[in-house]
Specification:
Length: 326
């Protein structure tokens, strides 16, 4: 590690002031500390925010869900309100990491994870996320686990968060506070695809701090679930994953929310799948027809072409699990 200063913030205002001066926020530290140890990240100042009052989990007045940014993953997954109203959130968290990590890691930190690309973590390899303009080693290297959606000539790394896939499906809002005050932005705008600026991973302004993530009210009854496909059942990142929420009334699908992980540079919303489902009656044929649209726009690389079909099959399977066979 390189030398750094350490400050423990006692208020949100104090944290923002320190962040505005260039300090990096740290709470559970389950990602940042690893990256500092590997010298991928070299912050000169850390601002410990773990003691701030940002860990509440509660239902919103109209039936949505608000999760404080510093709530622990394990606590959110076990929360009865979460498990009853949005079980996909609990499922994604329980599949995200080991029990030890879930006891430490925070919700805000989970969404802010850096890429799990081996080249990003190898400081001897060119990486545009780490050093803009240096190149992307994964394009010509081993890219089996990399993205097929939302890629650019500058980066093909996937976003690693399971929770962010569910939040994207549910069209959650990220609440922030910073030197310019409070603001809220859809998670689909907060997490940025690489484009020409792969080092800019979030719409985060200097000194800003995530204070909460909020899932809007969705029609009831609502069925939801999260499915993760990986090389092994123990702690591992997704080859592909799918979050689905369906509101079925009178035998017809009135609302469909679908997003995929493990295949995109950000959690990938699947509007073509959603549009094919709405207004139709659940059936095995419908699940298969909708899933055929899951990989629209995919650009597979040399080693990850299998993800195109894997994504379609995973979407179909999860639609069947959540929506039923008939």
């Amino acid at each position: 590690m390189f030398p750094f200063t350490y400050t423990r913030a006692t208020s949100v205002h104090e944290a923002i002031e320190a962040g505005e001066r260039g300090g990096r926020y740290i709470a559970g530290g389950t990602t940042l500390v690893d990256l500092m140890r590997e010298t991928v990240e070299r912050p000169s100042a850390l601002v410990d925010i773990v003691g701030l009052p940002l860990s509440d989990v509660s239902a919103t007045p109209r039936g949505g869900l608000r999760i404080g940014a510093l709530a622990r993953m394990a606590d959110v997954a076990a929360d009865p309100v979460v498990r009853q109203t949005y079980p996909a959130v609990a499922q994604a968290l329980e599949l995200s990491a080991s029990a030890q990590l879930r006891n430490m890691a925070t919700i805000g930190g989970n969404v802010m994870q850096r890429p799990r690309c081996a080249y990003f973590r190898d400081v001897s390899a060119p990486c545009n996320r780490r050093e803009p303009g240096s190149g992307c080693s994964a394009l010509e290297g081993y890219n089996r686990t990399h993205a097929i959606l939302g890629t650019s000539e500058h980066c093909v790394a996937t976003h690693p968060s399971d929770l962010a896939v569910v939040l994207t499906a549910f069209e959650a809002t990220v609440h922030l506070v910073g030197p310019e005050g409070r603001r809220a932005t859809p998670i689909g705008h907060f997490l940025l695809p690489p484009g020409d600026t792969p080092d800019q991973e979030q719409d985060l302004r200097p000194g800003e701090l995530i204070v909460a993530l909020e899932i809007p009210p969705l029609p009831r009854p609502l069925r939801s679930g999260y499915l993760k496909v990986r090389d092994r059942e123990s702690y591992e990142f997704a080859l592909t994953s799918v979050a689905v929420a369906l509101h079925i009334r009178g035998g017809v699908i009135h609302t469909a929310k679908v997003a995929a992980g493990g295949v995109g540079t950000i959690p990938w919303k699947l509007p073509a799948v959603e549009q094919h489902l709405v207004g139709r009656r659940p059936s095995p044929d419908l699940w298969g027809q909708a899933a055929e649209r899951a990989a629209d726009g995919a650009r597979p690389l040399v080693h990850n072409g299998f993800k195109t079909e894997l994504l379609r099959r995973t979407v179909e399977r999860q639609l069947r699990i959540v929506g039923g066979r008939s």
